Amino acid sequence: MAQRSVLFVLTSHSKLGDTGRPTGWYLPEFAHPYHILEPHARITVASPAGGEAPLDPGSVEMFKEDALSQGFLKDRKSLWQSTEKLSTFVGRANEFDAIFIVGGHGPMYDLSTNPTSQQIIKEFYESGRVIAAVCHGPAALLNVVLSDGSYLLENSPVTGFSNVEEEQAGYSKVVPFLLEDELNKRSGGKYEKAAEAWGPKVAVARGGKLMTGQNPSSGTPLGEAVLAVINK
User: How far, in Å, are 20, 32, 185, 223 from residue 190 at the CA level?
Assistant: First the structure.
């Protein structure tokens, strides 16, 4: 079997609204799926601006006892310190088996409205590639319109960071929109979530070509789900 290839996408946005606090991508939501996929796939990392993609320092603190995340932080810095510019991947879906959009609050501000990101996700989907996004990463899927004029998320089961989780994290009055609400609207009421807040949840749609994870604990099962599909 030829080696698989996965494009990971990180945010370039580093400021949490007008709070003055930093944000970015969320450590375990890259570290955990990377750990699952890297032994089986060539990994490429991109961000809208290219160069260094901002790591949310809060995620480093929150997951300081998570050995996998801390090992990733120590040994894999080059992955996010020298990302490729996302625009260079337009028209290159055939080079990859999947695209994986990492969460953190950053994607709510840039990937949710980034036309280049939307174009690449559309191309990946219409080329039969797997689209995966975790936690706030599904914000990047909200405004993706396919060639037939329909939204990618239309009538598709989807998950992402829940309103309860946003409230418990203390950011529901800070973020530009509540992701659960917008995902539910865009999917026609098909938003799904775990029975308990912060529990792992993966939603699978479009014959396994569209997969989303709810929160940080969903990074590993989402990575496993992506691997299972691209290895078929």
Answer: 34, 26, 8, 22
Which backbone phi and psi does 15 adopt, to 5 degrees?
Answer: -120, 135
Distance CA 142, CA 140 (A): 6
pLDDT tens digits along 161-206: 999 999 999 999 999 999 999 999 999 999 999 999 999 999 999 9
In three-state secondary structure terms, 55 is: strand
Local structure of residue 38 (DSSP, 8 states): T
**DSSP assigned state of 206:** G
Pairing of β 202-205 and β 84-85? unpaired
Phi, psi (5° rounding) for residue 7?
-100, 110
What are the structure tokens assigned to 140, written together? 């990047």
Q: Which tokens in the block code for residue 223?
A: 């990575």
Alpha-carbon distance 207 to 184, whole Å? 19
- pLDDT tens-digit profile of 75-130? 999 999 999 999 999 999 999 999 999 999 999 999 999 999 999 999 999 999 99
- Antiparallel, parallel or unpaired: β 84-85 and 210-213: unpaired
* DSSP secondary structure letter of residue 23: -
Q: Say how far apart CA 208 and CA 92 lie, in whole Å.
A: 21
Residue 3 has pLDDT above 90, yes or no: no
Residues 6+ positions from 143 with CB-CB distance below 8 Å: 112, 113, 118, 151
CA 151 – CA 19 distance, rounded (Å): 32
- Report if pTM > 0.90: yes
